[in-house]
Each structure stands twice: as C-alpha cells, then as structure tokens.
Amino acid sequence: MPHDHAVQCIHDPVLVALSFLVSVLGSFTALQMAISIPAARTSAQRWQALLAAGAAMGGGAIWAMHFIAMLACRMEIPVAYDPGLTVLSAVFGIGACTIGLAIAGTGVFSWGKLVTAGTFMGLGVAGMHYTGMAAMRMPATTMYDANIVAVSVLIAVVASTVALWLAFNLRGWAQMLGSALVMGVAVCGMHYTGMYAAHFMPTGEDAAAATAGGLVGEYLGMGVFAVATVLLTTMLVMTMLRRQRRAAVTI
User: Fold this and answer.
1) Among 5, 63, 230, 232, whose CB has the most other CB atoms within 10 angstroms?
2) What is the DSSP string of 86-107?
3) DSSP sequence for 218-242
4) Cα–Cα separations (whole angstroms), residue 197 to 89, 109, 143, 148, 160
5) pTM of the entire structure?
6) Residue among 44, 67, 19 at smallest CA distance from 215
C-alpha cells in the first residue's frame, strides 16, 4: 500500500480530551440507567429504561465521542461530513447498544447471552465507526490496513461485552465511576485504533467540490460536546430524582 504520499492526521489535544470526557459521562449515565432495566415492573417501564440507557451509551458514550474525535483530526486538506451518513452512524450506535442491553438484560443472566449481546453490540459500534469514517467528504480516498481494522473490531466487541457485564452487575457509585473511566479508555481505544488503520490518499480533485454540502465548522466539536454534556447530565439528574422518589414511596 503506498503510504508515502498519505495525508497525516494531527489530533487536537483539547478535542481528544473532550471526546474522552463525554465518553466517561455517557458510560456513567448509561450504567445508572441500566439499573432500572431488571427493576422495571411493567413492559413499558422496561422499554423506557432500555431506550434511555441505549441512547446514553450509543449516543453519548460512543457516537458523540466518535464524532468529536473525528473533528479532532486536523489534516492539510479540508474535510466535511456527509449529514446523512453522520446521522446513520448515530442510529447504528444507539440501535446496537439498545439491542445489546435488551439481549443481556432479558431473563436470567448467562455468559452465552452476554457474549452474544456483546458481539452484536461490538459489531454495531464498529459499524457506527466505519460509517462515520465513510461520511468524510474530502479530496482524498481512505485506504485501510485490514489487520488493524480487525483489531479495532475486536476491541469494540470486548469493550461492549465488558460494558454489558458492568451494566447488570454493578451498583455502587465509586464502582460505576471506575467502570465509566475504563469504558471511556476502551471506547477511545477502539476509535483511535480505527483511525490508525486509515490512510488518506489525496486525489487532487477540487476541494470545494469534494466537501460541498458537508457539515463543517471551527467550533463544531465544542458544540457537539456542549449539547451531549447537557443532554447526558439532564438524563442523569432525572434518573437520580426518579430513583429517590421511588425509594421514598417504598419506605
């Protein structure tokens, strides 16, 4: 593979740090919400808890982290993001996490069920990542090292399996915070491994034409971080208040 003329990706350290923080916050929020899945008394409550935890994990911990980290990649060629594929990548992330939580959280816990759910979720997360990569509009083509791609998919599956085990086996705040930090490292590890697998080869086409109609902006990464943080914090606070109200009723 001719790497000599590949365009280098230099990561903005501020956005890299923000991508990690949003991943930890999303993981912590999802772990808090996952407690309500086995505790749900009705089917409606269960689905509400599943969708909320899936959105926090898939949308916050994984997709928002991924998109901010993509925007952290600075290259000497202009890059924009296809809106349709970017939204599709978010749908993949949220959908895969929700289905993974649904499989792992149904009925009696078993290792077979956990591995099935973790594999499904991990493949969905990897699909989200590479769909997000395909959303890049630029005067260059992306070439991948298949071995490193395989490693990134393996990291996604292992991280997803661990996340699902934690979601249904942890209760304490300190344990959840520690787990969220581990998840943040794992999710970022998957993303940056996937980025390391990619080589961007300039095509020489007109930059304006290549990036036309794509999402772009100097402060887009900061904006995504701000919106994701507000949404995740709101979800977390509402979950804690609801749990306190339920505890007060049962006393």
Assistant:
1) 63
2) HHHHHHHHHHHHHHHHHHHTSS
3) TTHHHHHHHHHHHHHHHHHHHHHHH
4) 19, 36, 8, 5, 20
5) 0.89
6) 67
Do 59 and 26 meet the contact criterion of CB atoms below 8 Å apart? yes
Average pLDDT (99-128) is 90
Q: How many CA atoms lie within 13 A of 156 on its CB side?
A: 31
Domain range annotation of the chain: 11-250
* Unique residue bearing structure tokens 């816990």: 109
Strand ranges for the chain from DSSP E: 10-11, 73-74, 80-81, 136-137, 140-144, 198-202
> Which position has the token pair 């759910």?
117
Q: Is 237 exposed, middle or buried (0-12, 13-18, 19+ CB in 10 A)?
A: exposed
pLDDT tens digit sequence for 5-59: 788 889 999 999 999 999 999 999 998 888 888 877 888 888 999 999 999 999 9
Condensed to tens digits (0 to 9), the pLDDT of residues 162-187 reads: 988 988 887 788 888 888 998 899 99
Other residues' Cβ atoms within 10 Å of the Cβ of residue 44 = 9
Q: What residues have CB less than 8 Å from 136, skipping those under 6 apart?
A: 70, 79, 80, 81, 82, 142
